[in-house]
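Suppose you are handed a protein chain with no further information: no name, no annotation, nothing but its sequence. What can you learn? This example shows the usual starting point.
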Amino acid sequence: MVDDDFDAVVIGGGLAGACVAYHLVTAGARTALVDRRDAGRATDAGAGILSPETTRVAGRAWSRLALDCGHYYPRLAAAITGGGAGDALADGDVGFGPCGLLAVALADWDIDAYEQLVVVAQARDADGGIVEIGSDEARGRFPALGPLTRAFWNPGAARVDGRRFCTAVLRAARRHGLECVDASVDRLVAGAGGGTVEAGGRRLRCTTVVVAGGAWSPPLAAQLGVDIPVRPERGQIAHLSVAGADTGAWPIVSPVLGHYLVPFPGGRVATGATREPDAGWAVAPTVAGVRQVMNEVARIAPGLLEAELLEVRVGLRPASGDGLPVLGQLPGVGNAFVATGYGADGLLLSPWCGRLVASWVLGAAPDPALAPFMAARFAAG
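A reasonable first move is to predict its three-dimensional structure. Written in structure tokens, the prediction is:
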């Protein structure tokens, strides 16, 4: 077995792990990332809605975290796009861009939920850009919409192609010296004296281990004697092709009760997603899931009924027991950290939370305001 020494080893190559590794290696830490490329990784199937003002989790701590995550995206996108030769994808497109978001009520029965959301969203909106608009204006922005009752506009929302953005982050990290190991972790040990990760016939000795394996994080933490309450929640998302439409100019549509629509350039629209907490590790699309998604398309945007069904992507979201991220040092284990539990908000949370976790690995003290998200909250369990 070949031995190598690193400052840190990150386990998990989705956006959560990629962002931790990127921030470690750009800060000068010799870092390796181990990933076995599991089918059903949430990064590869996520819709890519970046609208922290309209996220549904309550509480001041969440609002601050979500807003910090949203504000950080343009900075990271700029860094991995223009950081130097080899940092960006071949065409310079890292999959991130502003587009705005329409939050809509479709009938009288969802007015209460709409009114609650618009109050929360406007309270989070420091720029005052969130405003209610008429139904005709809403359909002017998204021509495929059907009848609706109320709508408000969030001009600060953006979208991200998770696959593309993750690829760009990893490419930038490799440019700064990240070593990637495509293998499964056979053995994981960590403690006050450091850690060891055995993978792909190599023994990676390190000062610190970071578990960022998405829904697969609990078995890794279990090797360290820690139980973290994270489970897979299946989500099925359909991708449509709309011939002749300038979908790159369309905004995200987010019904207050119902499925979203996320347009991308090139005639593509992602729509979904199902929430299936009892599906276990199954990663194949199902008739029931596709039917649910298509019924929602017909209800919300009947103008898309003639679109071509390109593919159905299935992701296993890492859903925590209390619905909040699981970050920071693993309780009772020296030199081991975790970044998981992002649920359906993984693409929004990963870049900023990855930066936070990397800073803690490098010795920074966590902000006390982030206590609701720290892994230590589960220590009593």
